[in-house]
Specification:
The protein is mainly α and about 160 residues long. The protein has one domain. Helix 1 packs antiparallel against helix 2, helix 2 packs antiparallel against helix 3 and helix 2 packs parallel to helix 4. The chain starts with 13 loop residues before the first helix and ends in a 19-residue tail after the last helix. It comes from Owenweeksia hongkongensis (strain DSM 17368 / CIP 108786 / JCM 12287 / NRRL B-23963 / UST20020801). This is Hemerythrin-like domain-containing protein.
Length: about 160
């Protein structure tokens, strides 16, 4: 069986795809912590920090800058928006932290895979290069890679 070919991401979407990589790392860290028996409180503290410092900005940029390029009524955009809404709730679920952590890891991974494998491809096909450039110019600066790894409790290590 042939290996799937890597997706050629438009250069103007690459900062958002890079964010997705960091989101997948969050999922990995949550799963690693869970396997090591780390308390849900420690894991969720990091997850909330990640959400507040990285993910919320990423969601806003997609919702305000990227998704309008193909229309908010697009089926894929509506699916992504539903995912954002669900994830926002999970990151602040105080009722069952262990369940919330596991759902964040599962749902965020699926959400990112959908955006990367499906929605971003549609956007690349439908949006013009000029529109993607304009969207890219409005993105906020990305944090340095090292700033994502400065959490004082690296429970995943």
């Amino acid at each position: 069986m042939d290996k799937p070919q890597p997706i050629k991401r438009d250069k103007y979407l690459q900062p958002l795809s890079h964010d997705h990589h960091h989101g997948l790392m969050l999922c990995w860290k949550i799963n690693k912590g869970h396997k090591k028996g780390v308390s849900a409180e420690r894991i969720m503290a990091y997850a909330k920090h990640f959400f507040e410092t990285q993910l919320e900005q990423h969601f806003r940029e997609e919702e305000e800058l990227l998704f309008p390029l193909i229309g908010m009524k697009d089926e894929g955009v509506m699916h992504a928006m539903d995912g954002h809404k669900r994830l926002r709730v999970l990151f602040f679920d105080e009722e069952n932290l262990d369940n919330a952590c596991q759902l964040i890891a599962k749902e965020l991974k699926a959400h990112i895979r959908f955006e990367e494998r499906t929605l971003f491809n549609v956007i690349q096909e439908k949006a013009g290069a000029e529109e993607l450039l304009k969207m890219n110019q409005q993105l906020h600066s990305r944090p340095a890679e090292q700033s994502l790894n400065t959490w004082e409790d690296p429970f995943w290590a």
